[in-house]
Amino acid sequence: MKINLLEKEDVAQKLKRIKQNVFQNANKPGRWLAWKLKKQAEKRWITKLQNKWGNMLSRRRNIAQKFYEDFYKEEENVIKCFKKANLPRISEEGKSLSNRSINLEEVTWAINKKITKQLAQMHSLLNYTKLNKKY
Fold it and tell me: What does DSSP assign to residue 27?
C-alpha cells in the first residue's frame, strides 16, 4: 500500500515537471524565428552613412538628403535609371499636346464629363437598390 502511494506521488511529481517544462519551453522556435527575422530586417536598414569627409551621418533626413544629392549630382545616373525602367517613349505629337496651354473650354468639358459620369453611377446605384429592396 505504501509502495503504491509512493509510486503515485512519484508519477505526480514527474507529471508536474513535464507540464512545467512544456510551459517554460513553449513556442521557443516561434520566438527564435521572430527574433531572427527582426535581426535580418535590421541588417537591411541603413542606419549610418559616411560622407566624403569621413563624418558619419545618423539622422534619417540627412541620410536621405545625402543619397539624393549624390544620386542626382551626375546626370548619367538619372539617365541610366530611366533606361532601366523601360518607360515608353512619348512621340513628338504627344510632347506638343502636353506642352500646349489648356483653355477654359477644355476645363469645363472635363468637369462636365466627370459630373455626368458621377451622376450616371449614382442613378445606377439607386436603380440597383430599388430593384433589390426586400419588402
Answer: T
pTM: 0.27
Which residues, in sequence order, are bridge partners of residue 50? 56
Whether 45 contacts 63, CB under 8 Å = no
Q: What 8-state DSSP symbol labels residue 98?
A: H
Residue 16 lies in a domain: yes
pLDDT tens digits, 100-118: 888 889 889 999 998 888 8
Distance CA 102, CA 7 (A): 95
Cα separation values, 89 from 75, 82, 96, 108, Å: 19, 11, 14, 30
Q: Quote the number of domains for the chain.
A: 1
Q: Is residue 61 part of a domain?
A: no
